[in-house]
Amino acid sequence: MSIAVPKYLNESERLLRMLAGSIISQAVYAVTQLRIPDLLAEGPRTCQELASLTQTEASMLYRTMRFLCDEDIFRETDEQTFELGPLGPFLRTDTPDSLYAHALMYGQPWHSQPAGHFLESLTKGVSAFEALYGMNVFSYLAKHPEAELIFQNSMSAYSRSIIPAVLAAYDFSQFDTVVDIGGGHGILMEQLLTSCTHTKGIVFDQPAVIDSAKQYIMSLGLEARCDCMGGNFFESVPQGGEAYVMKHIIHDWSDEESISILSNCRSAMKEDGKLLLLEVVLASGNEAHFGKLLDMEMLAMSTGKERTQAEYERLLQQSGFRLNRIVPTSTHVSIIEGVPN
Question: Is 251 a catalytic residue?
Answer without folding.
Answer: yes
